[in-house]
Amino acid sequence: MKLEQEIKQQKPFKTEHERAVVNILFTASWLQSYSRDFLKQYDISSQQYNILRILRGQFPKSSTVNLLKERMLDKMSDASRLIDRLLKRELVERTICPTDRRAVDIFITKKGLELLKRIDKERDDIDAMLERLSAKEMKQLNELLDKLRG
User: Fold this and answer.
1) What is the mean pLDDT of each run of 10 residues along the chain (150 residues)?
2) Looking at residue 144, what is its pLDDT?
3) CATH 1.10.10.10 in the chain, residue ranges
4) Are the C-beta atoms of residues 13 and 2 closer than 8 Å to each other?
5) Which class is 43-125 in CATH?
6) pLDDT value for 84
7) How far apart are CA 81 and CA 2, in angstroms?
8) Residue 91 in contact with residue 108, Cβ under 8 Å?
9) What is the spatial distance between Cα 38 and Cα 40, in angstroms, rounded to a whole number?
10) Axis-axis angle for helices 16-40, 46-58 (nearest 10)
11) Which residues contact 83 (CB under 8 A, 6 or more apart)?
């Protein structure tokens, strides 16, 4: 469906640039909403999911809170509070860094890895949605988005 229909816009955009900005923001929100609804069944937020994925990428090495903040998609998230919630669910563990007692190391637990494995198996809906674009179109989209960010 065209953007104008989705947002029920009556007048045409002034420029294609204006349309592109609104389209990017609308599509990002649409994807976030879809992802949030998908992750609800696992009682996990998209920010928590992002942290678990970063930790899985670091596994078996640890991560610091600062590393997680740097790599998170949502830079406005409070990483420390997200980690606290994941700790309560035993999806991550926190230890004092042996080389710097002021620093804290964060590790994903076996339970956290198992949750990600379950989520990965059931992401078919999201993957199917992305298959609306061919591999060539997906590559072009990625290149254009990278170019846009400079």
Assistant:
1) 82 90 91 90 94 95 90 86 95 86 89 95 76 90 91
2) 92
3) 43-125
4) no
5) mainly alpha
6) 94
7) 39
8) yes
9) 6
10) 80
11) 51, 65, 68, 92, 94, 106
Length of the chain: 150
Q: Which residues sit opposite 94 in a β-bridge?
A: 106
Which residue type does 31 have?
L
Letter string b/e over residues 47-84, b meaning 16 or more CB atoms within 10 A of that residue's CB:
bbbbbbbbbeebeeebbbbeebeebbeeeebebeebbe
| Cβ–Cβ under 8 Å, residues 47 and 72 | yes
SS3 assignment, position 106: strand
What is the pLDDT at residue 50? 94
Tokens, residue 7: 């947002």
The whole-angstrom separation of Cα 56 and Cα 110 is 10
